[in-house]
Amino acid sequence: MIYLVFGLLLFLGIHSTRVFADGWRLRMVARLGDLPWKGFYAALSLTGLALLVWGYAQARQQPVLIWSPPVAMRHIAALLTLFSFVLLAAAYIPANHIKARLHHPMVLATKGWAFAHLLANGNLADVVLFGGFLVWSIVLFASSRRRDRREAKVYPAGRWSATVLTFAVGTLAWAAFALWLHAAWIGVKPFA
């Protein structure tokens, strides 16, 4: 469990610098340069991700059950992750109505993904991993919206063609992940 916690702290910590240490981040970018900062950021992110994936896999071998979720929670989680995949697609497809309205769809996708997995899983490792991501995404979304208001940031208007494409890409990605990739990569079949 220690590797999971350390990896989570490292991964979410580096992804929280704009929230908790923006001055330090700006000084580092000025001192190192944009590209070296991005390399440092990527290296810490990948190290944290590797540690949390490995730590989670280790913790799953000796699960500590906190609660046993009802089967219906898996169905609710599936629906929430569908919305999360659409939100994730909205982060990358330009000029869609979802991003125009919500401004930070990737953070909302993370929030939905984490909450869905908390509903469907009751082991201690699940609570640490998904609970950590849920708390982080709530804090990051609020901070990002405050920064947008402070900077008077304007997002481009959405187009219906981009919005339809966003829903199509998100739904197809969700189907591929739910039906095949989740079992192949995580070892769990969501619909089994």
- How many beta-strand elements? 0
Strand portion, in percent?
under 5%
The domain count comes to 2
Order of helical and strand elements: HHHHHHHHH
Task: Measure the end-to-end span.
Answer: 27 Å
SSE-based structural type = mainly alpha
List keywords for this structure.
192 residues; mainly alpha; 9 helices
What's a quick, concise take on this entry?
By secondary structure, this protein is mainly α. Helix content is 80%, strand content 0%. It has nine helices and no strands.
Describe the structure.
The protein has 192 residues and is mainly α. The protein has 2 domains: 1-62; 64-192, no CATH class. The protein contains 9 helices and no strands. The protein is globular, with a radius of gyration of 18 Å. The relative contact order is 0.14. The mean pLDDT is 95.
Chain-wise SSE layout:
Elements: H1 2-14, H2 17-20, H3 22-32, H4 34-61, H5 72-92, H6 97-102, H7 105-120, H8 124-151, H9 160-186
